Fold:
Amino acid sequence: MENSKEMRTWLDDMGLDHPLVIAGPCSAETEEQVLRIAHELKDTDVNYYRAGIWKPRTRPGMFEGVGAIGLKWLKKVKEETGLKTATEVANRAHVDLALENDVDLLWIGARSTVSPFIMQEIADALEGTDKIVLVKNPVNPDLALWLGGIERLYTAGIKNLGAIHRGFSTYEKTKYRNIPEWQLAIEFQNKFPDLPLINDPSHITGKRDMIFDVSQTALDLNFDGLMIETHFDPDNAWSDAAQQVTPAKLVQIMRDLKIRKETN
Ligand code: PEP
Ligand code: MN
Structure:
């Protein structure tokens, strides 16, 4: 796949004077929760409202998402707030339902990027779409799997592409939930310099008090945007409670970050 500036047209066309911001809860929980967070994020820098409705949990027995009903809630978000919407898709059925319900941005999670068969299924289901599709890095620090997922989408005619750096699993316990391995993200940038690269400090840190510092590092490394999990009551969130921030905290983080975007 040749590196191509057309991959970042969707982002350039937005003409933002700040990094792209994708925010919203880890999981859609109830209609009220989804709408309340969206209303609290409405007049902020947030460009896309995220909510996971199919939740890939590493072990069974935990909340695995509300499923397709959540797509109706995301539609309401768009109608009531004007925010564009984003959700994770992990198979052909998810893609078909998300496209039918006009979700604006789809992302592929770290547990899907590891599987070439799933990536190919998703690429085939999305063939030719002009929706924005972002690929998270795989759970393991394997650059080729990440690049390969993007190549499969590009080959299926999906041109509005981007990547999300969410860190990598390790056996050793560190202060991170998923270590950033910044060098690997830089290698990724060198391979595809025109592909928008978004940082996900929520899943890298696993802790809300580390989100600012990781976000600042990402911006210093010229990342194009941030995906930050946001909930009005983080401690009682149904998933990823320790890492979510309130809408007010998100606004403060965005205000305090030093934005040093290189222009070329
Ligand atoms: C998420 O974004 O909520 C998620 C499940 O992330 P990841 O695929 O990075 O673990
Ligand atoms: Mn999460």
